[in-house]
Hints:
The protein has 390 residues and is an alpha/beta fold. It has helices at 3-9, 11-23, 32-45, 106-123, 143-149, 152-155, 209-226, 266-287, 306-320, 338-344, 372-386, and strands at residues 49-54, 58-64, 73-79, 129-135, 160-167, 175-176, 180-183, 185-194, 198-199, 234-243, 250-251, 254-263, 290-296, 302-304, 325-326, 347-353.
Amino acid sequence: xxxxxxxxxxxxxxxxxxRDFHENPELLYDTHRTSKIVSEKLTSFGCDAVxxxxxxxxxxxxxxxxxxxxxxxxxxxxxxDALPIQEKTNLEYSSKHDGKMHACGHDGHTAMLLGAAxxxxxxxxxxxxxxxxxxxxxxxxxxxxxxxxxxxxxEFGINEVYGMHNAPGLPIGEFNIRPGAFxxxxxxxxxxxxxxxxxxxxxxxxxxxxxxxxxIVVALQSIASRNTDPLKSLVVSVTSFQTESNSYNVIPQTVxxxxxxxxxxxxxxxxxxxxxxxxxxxxxxxxxxxxTLNYERxxxxxxxxxxxxxxxxxxxxxVAGVANVDNNAAQVMGAEDFSxxxxxxxxxxxxxxxxDTASLHHPNYNFNDEAIPFGTSFWVELVxxxxxxx
Length: 390
């Protein structure tokens, strides 16, 4: 039976898995229920090995082909965690847990890779080994790094690694991808400013921490507009400005700023951090304030390897048709911790259309089950083309 026909036959089953995951979202590394179900299903499919506890709650399945003449091993990754968002979809399978929902489609990613694993374990029409990777804590927890730090790539001998994400706004049945930098790095900073508080009617007796913070916010915007090559991308956003006072007549002693820095190249990333430090230090010096800056580097730039990107393009064109694959997609300033896996092994990351739905991380978002045949078929075709039977 052709791959697509078999996957279509599995559509309702995979949809049931997806909706069960949707009803029972779990955050970060607390994916115990999801991980248990994934592990049990991989075992029931007849995987040659199933290992849990990689990257705390990650699950890995090993599927060997009918032959192994090349010793080639490829990894396919899906993320499992949800977000701390109150769902507003009113679906019959809405989240059962207040303040938690699958607002990024990881329920769909997990279900599609499970569907591919079931098909591959049944047919084994490939030469080599497939490693299916189910990762926790993509949403801010760096679960991919945890799995890599636990020896994921070396323990399973992975040569190449591939990832997929749904894309709201991209029509069902379409894919997009690009070689090189595809998604941005994501750093964050917290800045504590201490001045001298006092009465709002006597500002000359104070060191106004609110003024210092405001000057810093404005100055930070010059990094992108005046320090960065206009042909390169940088976003510096202050997302929180909090004082210790909510009174009309009090100049607060302290202010805390929080923000994020995103870019698509390491040289701009280094420059932005250096400039932030200088702006903070020199502005505080100008106004006689004290400052403490905590700057944390987060997910690195996600870079698709050129050769592996071309493999994904070829497969996507086979699954969806040439006209439905954009191989030079726009870069994305959002971040993705699959970047850690791509730092360890060559590979690439593709996006599959989710149709006209609410955006990611929105309380009305829902993964579109019509994308399942395309995503699942893509994984199967990728394996059979990268590991052709000899």
